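Q: Hi! First time doing this. I have a protein sequence and I read that you can turn it into a structure. Is that right? Here it is:
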Amino acid sequence: MKKRKLKTKSSLRIRFRITKTGKVLHMTQNSRHLRRKKRKGTIRGYGVPKQLKGKFAAKIRRVMGVKKRK
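A: Yes, that's right. Below is the predicted 3D structure, encoded as structure tokens:
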């Protein structure tokens, strides 16, 4: 019996980016709402993508159909 193909989630393409080396990058949460009350350094930090690690990053990679490079 053949294995079923895993459909890639198109919504994850918008939320996450995978680099050539296999790192999973995402933008920070809390960056859109109530920006006036936040410190300027915090607001600047929202523009820099953060790296996901561990099991959650592996799950995102699998759902997007990408294998990690060595």
